[in-house]
Amino acid sequence: MYPAMTPFLAQSEPWISFDVAGLAEQFWNNTVDGLAQGGIYALVALGYTLVYGVLKLINFAHSEVFVVGAFATWLTFYVLGFRAGVTPELSVVEIILFLGIACVVAMAVSGGTAVLLERVAYRPLRNRNAPRLVFLITAIGASFAIQQTLRLIFGLNQQPQIRLLQPEPLFRVFGATVTNIHVILIVAAVLLWFVADYFINRTRLGRGIRAVAQDPDTATLMGVNKERVIVITFLVGGLLAGAAALFYMMRIPQGAIYNGGFLLGIKAFTAAVLGGIGNLRGALLGGLLLGLVENYGQSLFGGEWKDIVAFVVLIVVLMFRPTGILGESLGKARV
Amino acid sequence: MSGARLTRVLVLAAAASLALGACAARDQGSSSGDTTGSAAAPSQAADAANPRGDGNAVCSGVSIAYAGTINGNSAALGQNILRGADLAVKQHNEANPNCQVTLKQFDTEGKPDKAPGIVTQVINEPDILGVVGLPFSGESKAAGNLFNQAGLVAITPSATNPALADNGWKTFFRGMGNDAAQGPAAAKFLTETLKAGKVCVIEDDSEYGIGLAGQVRDALGSKASCSDKVKTGQTDFSAVVNKISAESPDAIFFSGYYPEAGPFAQQLNDKGITAKFVAPDGVKDAEFLKGAGAGATNAYFTCPCVPEDNFTDFTAAFKQVEGADPGTYSPEGYDVMTVLLKGIDSGVTDRAAMLEFVQNYDGQGLTKKFKWNDKGELADTPVWSYRVENGKIVNNGQIS
How many percent of chain B have pLDDT more than 90? Predict the structure, then answer.
């Protein structure tokens, strides 16, 4: 669109900067923030990666599964009696309790949405052996359908921000302030990733998922219920997206807006591809890396380069590592 | 899938992502909001044009259109303007039984890609003699030439981008000051009223945000010690906040709209940055207060809109007829509609005559004197400042 062209045409400001001093000065602050944002990317990326691994389908509606979780979080806060404005004074127990409730609700709603999506949008196509491209278009259609439904229900504006936990500086690392939110986000993202990794690699259901990812027909012959595995895959992706939505709302309380999942979904998908789509470790690595690169890039080149830096890094990585940094692996035996 | 094919697919997907990201450019929007309080707000001028006129007007089958956001982006601002215009038409029709003017409403959703189609619909209805709109700069730029080709007068009550007047459109008129007035006024407000020696100017990627930030930076000169850009729809501002934190300015000027300003102000506040947060008319909206939380307490606004606090007759009638409080640019919407109604009352029956009438118009309105130059700009362009007090946006005095 033309407004984006304006800086190139009629702007006395330089259209790109190389602020190396700024990058160095804000390096550690940007690292901490980048890891926190990257943790959210990683959790959402897991949903893309799992579904891709099993169905070879890029589930573009996953961004809406995420944003539905954000609305669920907001509504939970609202129903619990919290309102927009200054963060209320709560004891640690209350905060853990309320955030725990919100987490369960968000995970349930997002997980339910993902399963419903699979049931309504994808299974009928699978039963008719539709070509893969049809799935992709359906995914985009489902994404719009959910987005516009949210728009009809909640309107165009972001929901007024409700926050239960005020960011408080805890300690400093190399001059960077680390807040309680940072710690919770990074720890929780890594923890949840470990749970997901354990689930896929060490449990019976996880073995089923890997089997279907490797060879659906043989897996079916060996007694794996393929349809059930697919539902579980969507469910796990949805649960993780719901948790990601809660963490996202803790970091950015204005996140409940109908199109709030769009860019974040693309970023998470980018993270999945960057790390190697179909690869759980790749999703974590890609997410954290993307969060970091975005922040460093902004410091170096200026804020308007945030998204461009992220995608250029992706393209460069794919040129040298076509299957992503860690390679595509859910479907390979070497997991 | 073979390696080479996978590469192609992934590179394509990456390129698509890049393109989609770039397309997420903003739909042009602006602001609205409650204003109460009364730091020297102007009183209603005794000779302000009254849409009622003398009650003897005669006309038939004529309409005036409102075109702008109604249910789309930044809908609150569109509603503010539409209600102001609607009040003027209702007062006119009540007082003039022999001249019933119809107000037709067209929703552009505030989007530059949608506005040209809607404007074409407006043009194709021959009974429409004049238009109140379009409210936003981006859509005005996209559709302004259509009005010009059709010779249909369009008076915008809120699009502030200065370059809109430089297109040679004979039909373009602006009902308030542009950003060439707001920018320097904001700079003066920052340096003189708020005594800021170091200002960070942050702009978004909209027509409006970029243009205004340039004006503010030029007027600030060396006091604009840092600048950065954000994107429409951005919610995580950590890198910009870290940059500002390292700079520790006295004030921050955010040139953009309220959906980004809310989280940005909150994240600045979370970081412990106590610099004054100053933002223009695109942020002056109750929605900003909801989004920014505690970050809004330090906020100030500049706006070419006139506070309606002391327009007692107008405010009372507005509340009674429209069932809502007037907001940002409601009085401006009322004023520009009144100008068009005066044209109809004077016996105008076609678009060419309406254009000539508006070009030669010279009269006092509620908010200011209306007399346009050949580019469609006013000479009298007051700019006001506002601040946040007890969770409301209140008048903070005239700054230009």
Answer: 65
Among A37, A266, A318, beta carbon nearest to B21: A266
Residues of chain A found within 8 Å of residue B217, distances taken between Cβ atoms: 13
* Of residues A156, A253, A269, nearest to B73 (C-beta): A156
> Positive or negative CA dihedral for B47, B52, B53, B54?
negative
Q: Do A308 and B290 touch (CB under 8 A)?
A: no
Which residues form the domain of A180?
Answer: 21-320
- Cα A310 from Cα A45, distance rounded (Å): 15
Looking at the structure of chain A, the number of domains it has is 1
Residue A283: band (very low, low, confident or very high) from pLDDT cuts 50, 70, 90: very high
Does A127 fall in a domain?
yes
Residue A278 distance to chain B (closest CA, Å): 13
> Taking 70 as the threshold, does the pLDDT of residue B31 lie above it?
no
Burial B91-112 (b: 16+ CB within 10 A, else e): bbbebbeebebebeebbbbbbb
Contacts of B23 in chain A (CB under 8 A): 1
Q: Does residue A151 belong to any structural domain of this protein?
A: yes
Give a yes or no: residue A97 inside a domain. yes
Stretch A292-316: mean pLDDT: 90
Q: Which residues of A are less than 8 Å from B239 in CB distance?
A: 26, 30, 33, 294-295, 298-299, 303, 306
CA dihedral A144, A150, A156, A158 (to 10 degrees): -120
Alpha-carbon dihedral angle through residues B266, B267, B271, B275, given to the nearest 10 degrees? -60
ipTM > 0.90 (yes/no):
no
CA dist B294 and B310 (Å) reads 29
Name residue, tokens 């009650």. B55
pLDDT at residue B86 is higher than 60: yes
Task: Tell me if B217 sits within 8 A of B10, measured CB to CB.
Answer: no
Which CATH number covers residue A280?
Answer: 1.10.3470
Structural contact between residues B65 and B337, judged by C-beta atoms closer than 8 angstroms: no
The set of residues, in sequence order, having a beta carbon less than 8 Å from that of B218 and lying 6+ positions away, is: A12, B183
Q: Would you place residue A14 in the very low, low, confident or very high pLDDT band (cuts 50, 70, 90)?
A: low
Quick check: B235 and A255 CB within 8 A?
yes
Tell me whether residue A157 is in a domain. yes
Q: pTM of the entire structure?
A: 0.83
How close does chain A come to B25, measured CA to CA in Å?
A: 7
